[in-house]
Protein: DUF305 domain-containing protein
Amino acid sequence: MALLSRSFIRKRTISLAITASVAAVSLVMAHGPTSAHRIRHAVPIQYVAAWQDSSDETPFLSENETAMNKMMADMTIKPSGDIDRDFVAMMVPHHQGAIDMAQAELRYGHNEQLHRLAQEIIVTQQQEIAAMRLAVGDRLPPSVASPTQPVPASDSPPMSHQGMGMPHDAMHRN
Structure:
């Protein structure tokens, strides 16, 4: 019986490769997200305001940056002592952010397959918001038509990041 079987060597090689990969990613991330984005040659969405290009993509990127910033701000909550309610309080803005980004795709995107996917995202995220709110005993606002069709940017209502029209303070009731 060989002390170092093929299976043993293969498992150790995979383990070493994974460890090296994790160490490399950790090293890159330790230098901050800016370094990581430079390595990928990508412009992170939070830096869109500094982007000097005046391309057709600017309104889309700006709308997405607004949605992301609002989502992140609204996900920061003061713990209530009720894990379930706190989960919902953080997940609703997360889902609403997905809805807002999908609406931006409908407004500015051109790919029909992505439009269908964006429409599905809007519907399913709204359903999940409703299910979460009902699970913690919140009442739902009156139903409105799902905004799955592109709305010209100039005609769009102000973005509601609390999902389904519920006021912000309703999210934080005990």
User: Anything to note?
Assistant: Confidence is low (pLDDT under 50) at residues 33-42, 156-174.
